[in-house]
Amino acid sequence: MKKIFGIVALAVVFAAQSASAQTLKSVKDRGSLNCGSNGTLAGFGLPDAQGKWTGLDVDYCKALAAAVLGDPNKVKFVPLSAKDRFTALQSGEVDVLARNTTWTSSRDTSLGLNFAGVNYYDGQGFMVRKALKVNSALELAGASVCVQQGTTTELNLSDYFRAHNMQVKTVTFATANEAVKAYDAGRCDAYTTDASGLYAERLRLANADDHIVLPEIISKEPLGPAVRHGDDQWFDIAKWTLFALINAEELGMTQKNADEMLSSTNPDIKRFVGTEGNYGEQLGLPKDWAVQIVKAVGNYGEVFDRNVGANSPLKIERGLNKLWSKGGIVYAPPVR
Ligand SMILES: N[C@@H](CCC(=O)N[C@@H](CS)C(=O)NCC(=O)O)C(=O)O
Known about the structure:
The chain is of the alpha/beta class. It is built from 13 helices and 14 strands. The chain starts with a helix and ends in a 29-residue tail after the last helix.
């Protein structure tokens, strides 16, 4: 019985995999990309009252739709909770998951995901009320901490306190909204999440100035878009969409000058914009796939500044997210 069940389960896995090896075709046939997003996180994924979505992850999906369909607006954004996001990708409800998701080994392996790379290098931090008079996370022994279920945040929190022999009262919530509300209402001494999320959630507090972010960053949270196992072509397209954003910044190509680059004689730019070679075709995409991406959302630096950086309400420093050539660790392989 056990054996039969195993064989059936295996057949289901194979069926799902061969079905999923068609992602490019199904996106083209459908004429739109299904993108699993965060629906409540400013800077990453958030619709406004008119249903217009913005964010770093939202722009990644727009870039992917521009590369595949020639139109950044052909995206259906599916808001997903931390807990439900992986099932939505595994089941085929979405073609790609771009939802401030940390790349970890178990997600990459047993959850059956392929991460396209990192679109934001993050780390976990804590926020407390100034009135608590705490200047370091190491002074949080015995504290109650509000945290969201189904996240790496929840796991790191317990590791950190255990590693420092401190007690913690973890108070978990299904959504960030509930966790932040509870913290704001005084139900917890601290709120913990990715540092980028702290910047975003601070904007929602009744009196943002009454709170401080503690200096400790207790984990590595490389956030990136992911696709399902079993479709190498789609995985390549997901990776090269991200790499195109990064390479465009390195090549000095912007949303404004993208068209002018078509007449460039620089060989790196010629390959990138498709006036030399057939690199787009090798991906299963049009020649000008990268031009479409940059015309749609700009280069990585422009996407960063507009959504989370200097030109956004979050005003996050580029830091680690600067290009490798400018003192950061953002690096993409070349088109050639
Ligand atoms: N990067 C972490 C955390 C991701 C996460 O879900 N963070 C929360 C707190 S910033 C969030 O985005 N919540 C949005 C929501 O629940 O609407 C992970 O991949 O597990």
